[in-house]
Design goal:
This protein has 21 helices and no strands. Helix content is about 75%, strand content about 0%. The longest helix is centred in the C-terminal third of the chain and has 21 residues. It is elongated. It is mainly alpha-helical and about 375 residues long.
Length: about 375
């Protein structure tokens, strides 16, 4: 039975507040001219969609039937857009956008349609458009904590971190219990380099009972960054139970096992995360290229730890094809070449790493200088 995927419900409004939020948003819907029978059917579809237990394909069929007899229903177009998105099919994103746009054509002041449209634009990486829709919606419905929360995340995605912090604090002033706002605030604090404060926010979301894999993933990665490997390993393991098919969780779990020295387990997790595996297509929120980047980055670290230098170099080179300015990888690749006594290549990547602010250690730099001097001397002697 195809039900609405959990990750879709989470992204749209947050599982914990789904029904309550839909009722608040629905209060703004244009119902005066709607047929009573239509409203009864829409209420049933709405309850099914927002409960997260309905089947999106069934909702799509019924909403199409409703629109065949009442094509001017802005709410029906809104719900059809949500239902298309809830199928989880990437090819339905365009259909979802079209339905939400039609709802706004019928009623330009229909703020819920702008909210869900902004969500989809955010997923598509069109954050400027998402911000436009949210700012318009907030102008229509000032003080809406949900709209402010999503705007805060959009500003974070746009790298406007101080603006994100301000907007999320506004949202929490209105609704202090919002798990979504606390989660996005945690992400913003991480981006600002305030890891202790970020971890506190993320921990509060978990303690409040939020069962979103994204929250556990973010907290687990933050623990690892802070050197709290055991805590990271525990929370990331829990994340795999919440969403076993998420490859980005597997990458971070592999990292945790590597940091613990459990290299076989790390390798097993990377195998589950590899782009060629079935797990890699399970979540539309993990872009394929970003997933490949994460896998190659961790794979390089693991192979280096295992002493498999050729494999480590191959993975690091893949990372640098995608992001030549990644300082730590330039440094680690220089390290690999030092170990292989390939000093000319080592010097090349060490220079790049230093320029990017990630210099090679002094002893390895000395090894490069000594190796190059020796090669020069041997070359002169052979002439």
């Amino acid at each position: 039975m195809q039900r609405i995927p959990l990750y879709v419900a989470c992204v749209l409004i947050g599982v914990a507040a789904a029904v309550q939020a839909s009722e608040r948003l629905q209060a703004q819907a244009p119902q005066a001219d709607a047929k009573p029978q239509t409203q009864e059917r829409l209420a049933r579809v709405r309850a099914s969609l927002f409960s997260g237990t309905g089947r999106p394909d069934d909702a799509v069929r019924e909403l199409k039937e409703i629109l065949a007899t009442d094509p001017e229903s802005a709410e029906a177009h809104l719900l059809l857009g949500i239902a298309y998105r809830a199928t989880g099919a990437p090819e339905m994103m365009g259909e979802a956008v079209a339905e939400l746009r039609q709802a706004l054509t019928l009623n330009p002041k229909f703020a819920p349609a702008r909210y869900y449209l902004a969500n989809i634009y955010r997923e598509l990486g069109r954050n400027e458009r998402a911000r436009e829709e949210l700012e318009t919606a907030i102008a229509e419905v000032p003080g809406n904590a949900q709209f402010l929360t999503l705007l805060g995340e959009v500003e974070r995605q746009l790298k406007n971190l101080n603006r994100s912090l301000d907007v999320l604090q506004q949202a929490l002033a209105i609704d202090p219990s919002s798990a979504q706002a606390h989660y996005y605030l945690g992400l913003t604090l991480l981006d600002l380099g305030q890891s202790a404060e970020a971890i506190t926010e993320l921990e509060s979301v978990v303690k409040a009972g939020e069962k979103r894999a994204d929250v556990y993933l973010s907290l687990g990665a933050a623990y690892l960054d802070a050197g709290r490997v055991d805590a990271g390993l525990e929370i990331l393991s829990q994340a795999t139970h919440l969403d076993p098919a998420r490859p980005d969780i597997r990458v971070q779990l592999a990292r945790a096992y590597r940091l613990k020295g459990m290299l076989d387990k790390a390798e097993a997790q990377l195998a589950l995360a590899a782009p060629s595996s079935n797990a890699s297509v399970a979540s539309p929120f993990v872009q394929q290229r970003e997933l490949e980047y994460q896998v190659y980055l961790e794979q390089g670290q693991l192979k280096l730890r295992q002493g498999q230098l050729e494999a480590a170099a191959a993975s690091f080179l893949k990372v640098l094809e995608m992001n030549p300015a990644h300082g730590p990888t330039n440094r680690d690749l220089a390290d690999v070449y030092v170990r292989q006594a390939r000093y000319t290549r080592a010097r090349e990547y060490a220079a790049k790493a230093e320029k990017l602010g990630f210099p090679l250690s002094a002893d390895k730099q000395k090894a490069i200088d000594a190796g190059l001097a020796k090669q020069k001397k041997e070359g002169a002697a052979s002439k």
